[in-house]
Amino acid sequence: MSTNIRTKLLRKEPFMETDKLLILGVYDNPDKTYAVTKKLIAGGYKVYDVYSPFAIHGIDRVMGIKRTRLSVAAFGFGLTGIASALTFMIYASYFDWQVNVGGKPSLHIPTYIPITFELGILFTALGMVACFFIVNRMFWGKNADIMDLRVTDDLFVVAVDVKKGKGDQRALNQLLIDNGAIEVRERIKEV
Amino acid sequence: MEHVEVQIKEEKYQITEGNKKWAFGLMIVGLILAVIGYFTYHPHIEGLSEHDLHHLSMKRLLSNLLVNGYFFFIISICAVAFIAISQLANAGWYVAIRRIPEAMSEYTLIGGPILLLIIILGLPVLYHWAHDGIMTEGSSNFDEILASKSWYLNKSFFYVRLILFMSFWIFSAFLIRKFSRNEDQIGGLTSFNKTYALSAAFTVIFGFTFSMFSWDVMMSIDAHWYSTIFSVYNFATGWVSALTIMSLFTFYLRGKGYLNIVTDEHQHDLGKFMFAFSVFWTYMWVAQFLLIWYANIPEEVAYYKERLFGSYKFYFYFVVCINFLIPFFFFMSRDNKRSRTVGVFVGACLLIGHWMDVYLMVMPGAMNLATDPSDAYPAGIIKVPAQGFGMMEIGFACLFAGLFLWMTLKALTKANLYPTKHPYVMESALHDVGI
Questions:
Q1: Tens of pLDDT along B98-135?
Q2: Which pTM value belongs to this model?
Q3: Could you give the ipTM of this predicted complex?
Q4: Which of B303, B308, B236 is nearest to B274 (CA)?
């Protein structure tokens, strides 16, 4: 858990304008989590995120998460890899220094295919990992911002952003509890 | 589960009039075309005797039979392999479409004996190594290289292998179908566990036997030539075609309103499989071609010479384009994998392409005429240029396609369209690849 938030809560520091106020509903069952997420969205609340130890099928659609653009990025990285491999090999083995290997032609694309293929994969893989880290703002030394440590084990957390969407906290608490929450908590998330 | 709105229903497929018309229409039209093609085929090649030319039409007939017999047989056997591998991997998603590969595997019952018959008829005609006297020292057409392979390439061992392998596969397919259909009656985990054990045995044995099977049936046509990746390459051909046919059947059945638990998610996964294994096929294709091209060893290069520079040039490039470029570019995007139109288009292209691939494996070697080795023909082979793509090719392809279609549709009626009591049926119904 991020130490900043804990100290902030203990010292009762004032909220910053940019801080998010999240209400967490803690559940012990994926189906309850799914059902309450659906109800929250239908009720006009802004679901910040749902945390789960494993994938709950269909919840991404319910939450209205947009489709990832990682595949588009991957295609771009792949093309970069292919282009750089071909450029380098054509330059090296045809323009710069021709070597006679068993009388084979110097400029022959099929011979370049294995390396083109490998470099395409290498660029795609590394590029996608880099992209993933950048998009998720992950870097060395960053503390994992876990809503509740128990979501890494057996519990599920639905986080509702009450500054956005419907802000009726009393009704929200009731909704979360009525749908089987074993615990409802409040937490501040710095952005 | 609480948020689930799917219903597991017992669906039975009813064969429609349209199905009958299509299946039997294909068979009849195919047979007529093939017969017309056979009788109107009068090859004219300079330097060949009348007897040789007559022999050529018989060769073309049998090669076409072999192409189709082999192509549809490996599809149906790869459908069994698909079930076995999915079962071993404890896959859940495929359960909703499992009855389609099961139905396709029923073709082995008739396709296996047909292929065996074709090979028995074709052995002295198509396979150079099976000619009389070719392995006996002192005879006029004695071939030293082939004689050194006689411990493996001799008729009795060849038939023993073939019959042993094919009966094992057909029997396994029969058992897998039987367990699965029993499951609909009794439920429980008995059938699942039995299928699991059978799949484990089948997958291991299939890996080895399919290799030898492809050497025997396909590679030994060019008996001087060998490629160590050939069996993987053949497996890729059969596997992609089997996946394609499964996908096409799924589209068809869903379009008819069957398979209520199958969604675009399953179609998407089949599409991913088709995409991935098209690339795998190309990988194998390149691996085989590139090494032979680079090494430039005469007896290996001979195989590619007639394909790459000879009269089969067009087919050679056509096969790569249709089997790699079309699925690669059309199936790369997620939306296309879920689209019916694109799916059917790519599926049709892949089937044509892989059929053509088998055609290209058989034809150049099988159409060559055997002769006594001399200065003019040191290998004892008279090269025959490509005889074109005519009515015989289309006819036999239609005939076998109709037969395959009919066997599969008939098998679909024999059980529920998806296994209602399979332990993973709910998991499959809820299958979701996410956004």
A1: 999 999 999 999 999 999 999 999 998 899 898 888 88
A2: 0.90
A3: 0.78
A4: B236
Q: Which structural domain, as residue segments, surrounds residue A94?
A: 70-135
Give the structural domain span for B323.
17-429
Q: What is the pLDDT of residues B366-379, one digit of tens each?
A: 988 887 888 878 77
Q: Between chains, do A57 and B431 touch, taking CB under 8 Å as contact?
A: yes
Rounded to an integer, what distance in angstroms lies between the CA atom of residue B229 and that of residue B224?
Answer: 16
Convert the pLDDT of each residue in B260-277 to its tens digit: 999 999 999 999 999 999
Please count the structural domains in chain B: 1
A to B CB pairs, distance under 8 Å: 41
Identify whether the C-beta of residue A22 lies closer than 8 Å to the C-beta of residue A160.
yes
Instruction: Using an 8 Å CB-CB cutoff, list chain A residues near B2.
Output: 31-32, 34-35
Q: Do A102 and B434 touch (CB under 8 A)?
A: no
User: Do A128 and A151 lie in a common domain?
Assistant: no
With respect to residue B277, please indicate whether it lies within any of the assigned structural domains: yes
Half-sphere exposure of B328 (CA within 13 A, CB side): 13
Residues A48 and A81 in one domain: no
User: Do A58 and A76 belong together in one domain?
Assistant: no
B289 CB within 8 Å of a chain A CB:
yes
Identity at B392, one-letter amino acid code = M
A62 and A148 share one domain: yes
Is B435 among the domain residues? no
Say if the Cβ atoms of A113 and B430 lie within 8 Å: no
Q: How far is A66 from B237, CA to CA, in rounded Å? A: 37
Instruction: List the beta bridge partners of residue A45.
Output: A165
Domain C-terminal end among A135, A165, A180: A135
Q: Does B197 touch chain A (CB under 8 A)?
A: no
Domain boundary among A110, A135, A160: A135
Same domain, residue pair A61 and A152: yes
Domain of residue A159, CATH code: 3.30.70.920
Helix (H, G, I), strand (E, B) or coil at B69: helix
Residues A77 and A166 in one domain: no
Could you read off the pLDDT of B234-293 as tens digits, one per residue? 999 999 999 999 999 999 999 999 999 999 999 999 999 999 999 999 999 999 999 998
pLDDT of residue B338: 93
| Euclidean distance between CA atoms A26 and A176, whole angstroms | 9
* The token pair that represents A89 in the structure block: 């090999």
pLDDT score at B1: 44
A76: number of Cβ within 10 Å: 14
Contact B184, B416 (CB under 8 A): yes
Nearest to B163 by CA among B213, B198, B128: B213
